Amino acid sequence: MQPATTTDDDAAIAAGFEHFYETLRRLTPRGPLSLTAASTLRRLERSGPHRLCELYAPEGISQPAMTQLVTRLEKEGLAERTSDPNDGRAVVVSITEAGRAAVAHRRQVRAEALSELLRGLAPEEHAAVVAALPALERLSDLAAEQAS
């Protein structure tokens, strides 16, 4: 397989994403959840229960760090561990209703802050952002496929 060549457009897109990521981080409500904890809860919300061993790599942390994180989320009532019905030796992690509420709250606070920014765009700029959403979702799906 030949290495991918990066175009000027690719580099500009990467820089734009980096800048927007920094903006989203500033819009993220400060609270008890770390970015990794929130991301893990979103993954459980979106994709359903996962074995503990499936959670650490996508988050870019070690398995012991994920075990500690899940322990903390469990103590806070945001996640729960159960035995894997297919393998009693393995642990399955699920999001709780309190975890869903925490994810929804973070999303709502971020949406309200982003809404203020979006009102500052010209109508055609707003439409361009909306039009780009399917492509951005597809990029996220491709990244998730590559990670697994």
Question: Can you walk through the features of this model?
Answer:
This protein is mainly α. It contains six helices and three strands, in the order H-H-E-H-H-E-E-H-H. The protein has a domain at 28-121: Arc Repressor Mutant, subunit A (Orthogonal Bundle), CATH 1.10.10. 66% of the residues lie in helices and 11% in strands. Strands 1-3-2 form a three-stranded antiparallel β-sheet. The mean pLDDT is 90.
CATH topology of one domain: Arc Repressor Mutant, subunit A
CATH class of one domain: Mainly Alpha
Largest sheet: 3 strands, antiparallel
pLDDT under 50 segments (min length 5)? none
Strand order of the largest sheet: 1-3-2
Name the helicity range: 55-70%
CATH superfamily of one domain: Winged helix-like DNA-binding domain superfamily/Winged helix DNA-binding domain
- Overall geometry comes to globular
Architecture per CATH nomenclature, i.e. the level-2 architecture of one domain: Orthogonal Bundle
Count of β-strands: 3
